[in-house]
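ok trying again, last paste got cut off:
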Amino acid sequence: MTDDELLGRNSTKLTTKISEKGLRYDLTVPFARFVVQNRDKISFPFKRYQIQPVWRADRPQKGRYREFYQCDVDVVGSDSLLNELELIQIVDEVYRRLKINVVIKINNRKILSGIAEIIGEAEKITDITVAIDKMDKIGLDKVNEEIASKGISEEAIAKLQPILKLSGTNEEKLTQLKTVLSASEIGLKGVAELETIFGLCKAMSLSTQIELDLTLARGLNYYTGAIFEVKALDVEIGSITGGGRYDNLTGVFGMDGVSGVGISFGADRIYDVLNQLDLYPETSIEQTQILFVSFGDAELMYCLPLLKELRNAGINAEIYPESAKMKKQMSYADNKKIPYVAIVGETEMNEGKVMLKNMKTGQQSLMTLEDVLNELK
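nice, full thing came through this time. structure:
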């Protein structure tokens, strides 16, 4: 904002500029502030998850919104790479449950620093990594053009090519990197960290594909170690989860030397993926499993204790609240996709049982409450 704009006293224009700068743009920096303010009250390592809306000044488009929800998970106060493993396990579990096929792409800031060092352009690491991060979108030739436009020498760009073209399994890429980065101490440290992480993941037999991607360079402002990004395999959309290791984020608030690692799920993009792939379940786990139909006061008094016992056993059960026609009550069960209906009349009460109807097959069976429990479980 310029002095002229302030002196112009245009309240509408000023309010827009000021308010945009006051919006929360992520959850990690506020989390770092919280840790510093409560350093004497919390135990380290400190773990937390947080779900809140955040804002960006981006032009709204598919998968990119001005306001969106982030779901963050962080661990601070520990250098252990077991924390990286835990975050990878969370990603693995979340997308397994959502039935979204993903790949976890992983890199390490130290490796990127090592690459910049061995090609003789250590001070231009940001320019190099910002360019190579666009590899998937613009291709190798355009990446090289962008790097050259930043004043990086042709010799350095030539040295970079074999690195960008590394192929093979994760283990093969790491083996090649050990040779390429043999003269870089920081680069070799990054390789060792990734070797440890891949080894830990292998020990846990994760189902999600994990891929070393040297073009991954997100968040270089504060990431210092591992960098993560999760891509959906069956939908054209940007990353749906991302994060990494930050070694001194709390330093900006006066508390040095606290290492942390975190990931952030993009709820809105995940929602878009679920919509495109039609992955929402037909029923939810909170759905009613059995409906007692209601015929009259005597039947109601018979059914209420049964209803309570089923609920105590963890079965989601309900009773139709009024003595309506059977057709109306059955339509209610159909509309709510309730799989079972319990019908109780004089015969059932005399025998101490219920008539259980399977709404999918139409089959009806006279059952004790214990039999009903076994059927529903």
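cool. The mean pLDDT is 90. DSSP finds 15 helices and twelve strands in the chain.
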